[in-house]
Write a structure and sequence with these properties.
Elements: E1 10-13, H1 17-28, E2 33-36, H2 40-53, E3 61-64, H3 67-72, E4 79-82, H4 88-99, E5 107-110, H5 116-125, E6 131-138, H6 140-146, E7 149-153, H7 156-169, E8 172-174, E9 179-180, E10 194-195, H8 205-234, H9 239-249, H10 257-267, E11 269-270, E12 273-274, H11 288-299, H12 304-317, H13 319-328, H14 339-375, H15 381-387, H16 398-408, H17 419-442, H18 447-459, H19 466-477, E13 492-494, E14 503-505
Parallel strand pairs: 1-2, 1-4, 2-3, 4-5, 5-6
Antiparallel strand pairs: 6-7, 8-9, 8-10, 11-12, 13-14
The structure holds 6-phosphogluconic acid.
6-phosphogluconic acid (6PG) binds next to helix 8 and helix 11.
């Protein structure tokens, strides 16, 4: 067989930002790729990029200009990776592959942020045509290129084929330190350490876990943005100083990728002006945070901090309404603070962020726990925390502590009950409260930070006012209630409309 006729290991469809970087990552790890995109310019671009970076003799990326050509260039059974937008495009590509002659034992991996129920339906729909496997990817452009976090799920048979490839291209963590092993250069590979990928479960489970990752990502980002808002508007600090505070925070328990990039964003200047001051304050969203919030309501696992983060984006998009309201609605007059007051406040804000972050992760993990029960999955939470320690957007030093918590107790119902996290919250809750009280008096919106405190206080309340609520429900709807002084499960109803308001056992 001539070199030209040699068949490739992997087919790749979708050469956008994520796609082309994943292709180069696979190529660095020794896999030959047949690459296709409906936009032929992108195919040429991927070939050119690979030529620039390829130091070996053999071409690593072969361009393909049709689905049929793609299949003809692959070793059988075919292994094809999709990096196309979630939703319709996944079906369009699937149908095209069927048209081009894909076989039932061929594997197609959807790496997009598909809605998990769509993935379940798709696996069923295409099962006679090919094996649809899913593996959401986190880490953005840089992660895709030098090591993402990968959340695979679906056919266990497909996983046996995919596993070595995924373990090769994933980010790696040094097991001794729990910290990412650096990989930053083209051609460089890391073949030691814990790979940030692990089989999550049956179809849909991986996309569900990635959805929750993104929900946590929304909360994490919003918490940082609220802190920025408070420092900017409440303490009137210049952007450079806020960046310095964040950089300092990034040395301690708040050390995370999102904190790190926030420092970079705040320090970036355009014509001497911090870029952040020139960015319009209306946030976009593609839907994964919203899906997480919806799912939390559906399965009854409270995730108020994640939901608040979604609402914060929605409220931000009402720019003109907010402008109108700012003309008619008043808030407190901003006061000035002494340097000492500012320093105390900044310390309290740090603790508030830390506690709110713990609560956001606790909400995300409890949601996955609830979904696991609901859908009959068997999720390994220590392993999920482990594969989020590097590569992904929510990577943080903190994820090692979550890993440890689930390794101590894999049945842990909620992170707040773990001895380490309970200690962190107990030690910092007082300054968290002070920060929230001050932020409220400043009139600065902080839905994520304060909803997390409310979540914390709700979770640690052994008595909540739901007794009155049950009374209200029974009053207008005869919905019945249980009594604290009677055996569990026995239901009572008061005949509220009668004069004697007799209580009956139902
Ligand atoms: C990641 C990101 C990635 C993407 C999200 C966020 O893990 O790499 O989460 O999947 O950036 O889709 O999107 P939105 O903020 O636009 O909803």
């Amino acid at each position: 067989m001539t070199q030209e006729q040699q068949l490739c290991d992997i087919g790749f469809i979708g050469l956008g930002v994520m796609g082309k970087n994943l292709v180069l990552n696979l190529a660095d790890n020794g896999y030959s790729i047949a690459a296709f995109d409906l936009d032929h310019e992108k195919v040429k671009e991927a070939i050119a990029l690979d030529k620039e970076e390829n130091t070996s003799e053999a071409a690593r990326v072969t361009g393909c200009f049709s689905y049929t050509e793609l299949l003809s260039k692959l070793k059988a059974p075919h292994l094809i990776v999709l990096s196309v937008p979630a939703g319709e495009p996944v079906d369009q590509v699937s149908e095209s592959l069927i048209g081009a002659g894909i076989q039932p034992d061929d594997i197609v991996i959807d790496t997009g942020n598909s809605l998990w129920v769509d993935t379940v339906a798709r696996e069923e729909k295409y099962k006679n045509n090919f094996i649809l496997f899913s593996s959401a990817v986190s880490g953005g452009e840089e992660g895709a290129r030098f090591g993402p976090s990968l959340m695979p799920s679906g056919s266990p048979y497909a996983w046996t084929r995919i596993k070595p490839i995924w373990e090769a291209i994933a980010a790696k963590v040094d097991p001794a330190t729990g910290k990412p092993i650096e990989r930053t250069k083209p051609g460089q590979i890391v073949d030691s350490g814990d790979p940030c990928t692990a089989y999550i479960g049956p179809a849909g489970a991986g996309h569900y876990v990635k959805m929750v990752h993104n929900g946590i990502e929304y909360a994490d980002m919003q918490i940082i943005c609220e802190a920025y808002h408070v420092l900017r508007n409440g303490l009137s600090l210049p952007t450079e100083e806020i960046a310095d505070i964040f950089a300092q925070w990034n040395q301690g328990p708040l050390d995370s990728y999102l904190m790190e990039i926030s420092v970079d964003v705040l320090r970036h200047k355009v014509d001497g002006e911090p870029l952040v001051n020139l960015i319009l304050d209306t946030a976009g969203q593609k839907g994964t945070g919203l899906w997480t919030a919806v799912s939390s309501l559906e399965v009854g696992a409270p995730a108020p901090t994640i939901s608040q983060a979604v609402y914060a984006r929605s409220i931000s998009s009402f720019k003109s309404l907010r402008e109108q309201a700012s003309e008619v609605l008043t808030g407190p007059v901003q006061k000035s603070y002494s340097d000492e007051e500012k320093a105390t406040f900044i310390d309290e804000l740090h603790d508030a962020i830390y506690c709110a972050k713990i609560c956001a992760y606790a909400q995300g993990f409890q949601l996955m726990k609830q979904a696991e029960k609901e859908h009959g999955w068997k999720l390994d939470f220590a392993s999920i925390a482990k594969i989020w320690r590097a590569g992904c957007i929510i990577r943080a030093v903190f994820l090692q502590s979550i890993t440890d918590a689930f390794e101590r107790n894999d049945d842990l119902e909620n992170l707040l009950l773990d001895e380490f996290f309970a200690k962190q919250l107990n030690e910092n809750q007082q300054s968290w409260r002070k920060a929230i009280a001050n932020i409220t008096l400043m009139g600065i919106p902080a839905g994520a930070l304060s909803s997390a405190l409310s979540y914390y206080d709700s979770m640690r309340s052994n008595v909540l006012p739901a007794n009155l609520l049950q009374g209200q429900r029974d009053y207008f709807g005869a919905h019945t209630f249980e009594r604290v002084d009677k055996p569990k499960g026995k239901k009572y109803h008061v005949q509220w409309s009668t004069d004697n308001k007799e209580m009956i056992k139902v």
